[in-house]
Description:
Two copies of one chain form a homodimer.
Chain A: E1 2-8, E2 11-16, E3 28-36, H1 42-45, E4 55-56, E5 61-68, E6 80-82, H2 93-96, E7 116-119, H3 122-125, E8 127-128, H4 138-143, H5 147-157, E9 165-169, H6 173-184, E10 189-193, H7 197-206, E11 210-212, H8 216-226, E12 232-237, H9 242-251, E13 252-260, E14 280-283, H10 288-300, E15 312-315, H11 319-327, E16 334-337
Parallel strand pairs in A: 9-10, 9-12, 10-11, 12-13, 13-14, 15-16
Antiparallel strand pairs in A: 1-2, 1-4, 3-5, 3-7, 3-16, 5-6, 6-8
Amino acid sequence: MRSTVIHGARDIRLEDRPDPAIIASTDAVVRTVATCVCGSDLWRYRGIADVPRPTPIGHEYVGVVEAVGGDVTTVKPGDFVVGGFLTSDNTCALCKAGAHANCLNGTGYDGCQAELIRVQNADGTLIATPDEPDETMVPSVLALSDVMATGWHAAVSADVQPGSTVVVVGDGAVGLSGVLAAAQLGAERVIAMSRHADRQRIARDFGASDIVAERGDEGVERVKELTGGVGADAVLECVGTHDSVVQALRSARPGAMVGWVGVPHVTDLPQEHMFWKNVGLRGGPAPVRAYLPDLLDRVWKGHIEPGKVFDLALALDQVAEGYAAMDERRAIKALLRP
Amino acid sequence: MRSTVIHGARDIRLEDRPDPAIIASTDAVVRTVATCVCGSDLWRYRGIADVPRPTPIGHEYVGVVEAVGGDVTTVKPGDFVVGGFLTSDNTCALCKAGAHANCLNGTGYDGCQAELIRVQNADGTLIATPDEPDETMVPSVLALSDVMATGWHAAVSADVQPGSTVVVVGDGAVGLSGVLAAAQLGAERVIAMSRHADRQRIARDFGASDIVAERGDEGVERVKELTGGVGADAVLECVGTHDSVVQALRSARPGAMVGWVGVPHVTDLPQEHMFWKNVGLRGGPAPVRAYLPDLLDRVWKGHIEPGKVFDLALALDQVAEGYAAMDERRAIKALLRP
């Protein structure tokens, strides 16, 4: 089967690799119908994170089950399935507490930008869609594998409530998904911080009531103007840089929560914007499986269309172009069809 | 009137100062019935925080209203009252959001370890007790002015829920109050980290189910043993040193919240115990007025007796001994009677 392998900075290749097989009785093998490139894949693509040896890459997928191990009971060959970017057993103490991303028996993947993948912990990771989704719905189901669930996690971590005023820092696929999540959770006002017209358009479409293009002190000023001088009730940090974390904390009103989901590259957390202002910070990798049944239901009923974050669709053999387009910001997020 | 003035490290004097008067129409003047020394007062007493000039000190009190300004409507002369360690108007956008410690019009005090004090924002700060409390109840009402409300804030910030397993780091008056708060909020298990027999006794009395005397790696190990290997659902950080914040974060299970209320003296926040573990951190100065009606009700009905944290009662003219006893850890918390 064909699989994407990263060899080093800006060196992405589609290669022939052995078909994955059932190893544990809790495994499934899934034939991917769609997969995609994640902003976090770009850390290695850009040479910021190391690639010590050629490595299969990708952690988002939807597909059809090909085979299951003897202990798998909730999905069967032929089912159309989606799973999160980490596997989880959905039975351990941490999964029971809703912390599936930190499952005691959780694992990652051996490269999902491929035709076939092995999914460990199949019962605790995959869920089958009610039926085979039609073509137009596939991107939205795929988005649940990571970005939409991650944006949702930001909103949940930030404690977005009906009536909340929310700021979203970051207009990548996760930030846009965060806008959608905040709107779905009943936010009265969603302020998207974005400088790009195309992304602003999607943010509006997802429920943003206001756009703030300014950053830094000016960005904080604009947020204050829009929030009666006090800041937002909830802030979603969807970038992960030091500046964006500071931007998020400073956009919060005293007593507010910041939900952070951007993989942090923060020198040190600015306590001066936290303790004395009673501003909290919570988040991390999203417990996708915890949110998946609800999110799939919202997609299935047509309440949300998170697949709109994919503004580029390519065949899998054009995967290198997908990376290049995202790296050069020609695309928000690239979908790949095996 | 007599008032406590700090002149510098270990230099506490009771001095004659002018009686406070109504200045703004929203002021009250209160004759204190009891006041006390706070752990945070010790920062200056120990010379860690600066004392640039002789300064009246103290921020906890109960007393009887002597006079009110023309716009005060909720308390009147003769009322027995308690107020928080900061004043709040209880009407601004932040008070409406429950963030009274960050009230847009909030103030501090000009020294509450005194016979008379001026309370700004009287309507938004003071509440009158249903009746004059009897002698034995006075310490418990006084405790609501800071430590009990602060322990409560730690528990609320840590999102303690019915059935939660909770760790409390710190066995000072705030930590012990945190134990009581966690138990009141329905925690199934409250693990108090304490090395002192007298404090362990109060912790047990307040609802601690387990005591962990170890600290550092050993303390984390003990907590893990008591929590099925995963850590606590909620952790209350009631000290504020770097080590205690790290202890708190490491005692939390993935997905848990740490409520921090110890004034932080933290070099930098250890992100490695936060993001990847999905452990959140929230807290700051307590919004006392937000909690006061409920807490006073619990004291009045005899459900809680937070005044047990006072293990030393002195006349106001022995205030210097109160500081010394707390500094030398001969007392948990010193109550002063004018």
